[in-house]
Amino acid sequence: MKRCASWVAAVARPLRAGPGLAALRKGLAVFALLCIFSAAGLASVGPQYLVASPGSPISLPDVSYNQALGKYLVVWQQEAGVGNWDIWGRIFTEDGLPATSAFFIANSSANERDPKAASADGDYWMVAYLVDLADGSHEVRACRIGESGGRTLYTVAASAQSLPHVDIGASVTSGEYLVVWDDVVGEGLSDIEGRMVDESDGPVDDPFLIETGLDSENPSINQRGNDFLVAWESHDESLPSVHILGRYVSGSGDLGDPVCVFPDCRAEGANADPSVASDLSDPEGFVVVWASLAEPAGTNYDIRYAVVSEGFVEPEGPVAATAASEVSPAVAYSDITDTFLVCYSKSSTILAQSLKATGVVGPSEVVAADPDVSDLHPEASAFFGGETSGIAVVWDRSTGAPLQRGLRSDPAAGVADTKLYAADWLPGASNIGLYDPGPGKFYLRNANAPGPANYTFAFGTPGLVAISGNWDLLSTETIGVYGHVAGVFYLRNSNSAGVPDVTFRFGPTGSTWIPIAGDWDADGIDTVGLYKPSTGVFYLKNANSAGVADITFRFGPAGSTWLPIAGDWDNDGVDTVGLYNPAAGVFYLRNANAPGPADMTFRYGPAASDWKPIAGDWDQDGEDSIGLYAPSAGTFYLRNTNDAGAADVRFRFGPTPVIWQPITGDWDGM
Fold it and tell me: Is the pLDDT of residue 512 over 90?
């Protein structure tokens, strides 16, 4: 039942369908990493962590950092039914901890899709998205999001034709936003349009044309000072190839001259999927990256870049050009070293390279490799956090559990060095605790070492059974209790005295069933379960609410005195069950919540003892492992691997001898 600090950031945009480029329109998982790099090149990346996996398909996440609030808004589209998507969001702190629960941004009967987020650094974010109405018409909408998740909706534009893409940029100078989109106006013709949106008053003036008369698609936008640069794909039939065009737009909506981002517009080869980043060292500077067909008759794409400043394009050249195809580029700028990060997908790998505005390209760095998935679509975004800045890279995919990576620079070491911060970016270590059922009192410790309890409080009525879990998707695990008499669970979202946050009945009254908790469906939230010793059957629930079990199966013998535990034994994001036979001192661990033999069987601890089994990620390696608590000695024996051997960590905590119950969890998110 390991948990992690869920720092989340920017993400995937769909590609224009074309040779070698396919749009990703579905997904079950979102992945992310944070990358800090020095002038010499990229830092190594850390382990992957869960970001989001609600059980229904999700895709196209995006993120915006609000410097004034020091928080991030993460948005994504989530399938609500066949052919119908809603927009969701969640706010995170600067340290990567969820500041709110996930909330709806748009959940009408219409199909809402393709969210993009931006912040002008006031007290709000603005989210632009597309809406497909039941009558066949379409709208561009914007939603202002407050710090607590409050919403104000605006209609930006309406169209009878399809609206394939949308993007949004924010002007820190004026506090206004520019929403841009491509509008299909006829067969083979799409315009690029835009409209200014005020943070407080909504849409300003009327929508305006940014490019018309050509087949223009897939706009991307970024802001520098009071000006925006909009770049898009231009499919001009008079030219032999698709090319990348751009145009400056002022904060008041005035248009500059068109800019041919790819200087040789008549060069053979298709160019697609532009991404724009602002250069904070240049008052009017931007970098644009895109995918460019390597050979006119080929199918492989390279990644190219151009520096755009005051309407001029120089230099321009390749970022990545190998025999394989590189696609789905994204770019962001770090102010630490005046360096850009370009990330892109190459087969089943996401790579990243540093890029200077002078054209110096750094070596490629593997961000993620997944041999089971061929469509990885990254996006990148920068955050500026005072002493540290970073480039966040996230992506979605159609299978698997959602994960995240993280690195953070060490300010004391200077910008040329990096350090992995276990406290902020690694999964929090599991620690121990004790529950005294007599007065119903908890004693929780933030270190697996002797010492006083860090949290001491009473919760619930005396005589209940203690459990623990991450009930609300925050980074910390908290306590709960189960009452056999009434068959009721009482869960608390903080490690403190108070009333239960969640109360529900699950299981029979007056039973001897044993409660457990774990993340059975990899959605990041722990939910309860029960083990019936008389039949050897587990009853697992995927929601902390009343109802029938979602998973029921038999594991182990019936009528035994074996004790249940749960943990993520194989680091796949799913907690599964296990049993401990105290008579023999043997553990039986299962990697699936289904009938079958144990995947791991080993002896640990003495036979015929009263020692109690526990599980947790003691060493932050991503895998839960077992442990034992000896009530007669008040001693914990923790093992970092699930096999026979001596304890890796041994310490005393609590009085002796007692009948207190051991529990485990990441109490402080560290």
Answer: yes
The two tokens of residue 558 are 């019936």
Residue 527 amino acid letter: T
Amino acid identity of residue 661, one-letter, is Q
Cα gap 229→192, rounded to integer Å? 13
Q: Verify that 283 and 357 share a domain, yes or no.
A: yes
The angle formed by the CA atoms of residues 247, 270 and 188, to the nearest 5 degrees, is 70
CA 190 to chain centre: 33
Q: What are phi and psi of 248, to 5 degrees?
A: -75, 140
Q: Return the residue matching tokens 């100078």.
A: 173
Go through 571-610 and write b for each residue having 16 or more CB atoms within 10 A of its CB, e for each that does not.
bebbbbbbbbbbeebbbbbbbebeeeebebebebbeeeee
CB 18, CB 270: distance < 8 Å? yes
Q: Which domain does 579 fall in, by range?
A: 429-665
- Residue 396: pLDDT band (50, 70, 90) is low
Q: What residue type is assigned to position 654 of the chain? A: G
* Separate counts of helices (H) and strands (E) for the chain: 1, 53
- Give the model confidence (pLDDT) of 58-115 as tens digits: 777 777 888 888 888 888 888 887 778 899 888 877 655 667 777 889 888 889 999 9
Report d(CA 519, CA 79) in Å as an integer.
Answer: 21
Q: What is the tally of structural domains in the chain?
A: 2
Q: What is the mean pLDDT of residues 466-491?
A: 91
pLDDT digits (tens, 9 = 90+) for 397-430: 544 333 333 333 222 322 222 222 222 233 468 9
Query: pLDDT digit string (tens) for 35-55?
Result: 444 334 444 444 444 445 555
Residues 308 and 412 placed together within one structural domain of the fold? yes
- Contacts of 657-660 spanning 24+ positions with Cβ under 8 A: 657/631, 657/632, 657/633, 658/436, 658/631, 658/634, 659/437, 659/631, 660/434, 660/435, 660/436, 660/437, 660/631
pLDDT at position 432: 98
User: Does residue 612 register a pLDDT over 60?
Assistant: yes
Ranges assigned E (strand) in 519-668: 527-532, 537-540, 551-554, 563-567, 576-581, 586-589, 600-603, 612-616, 625-630, 635-638, 649-652, 661-665
Q: Are residues 444 and 392 in the same domain?
A: no
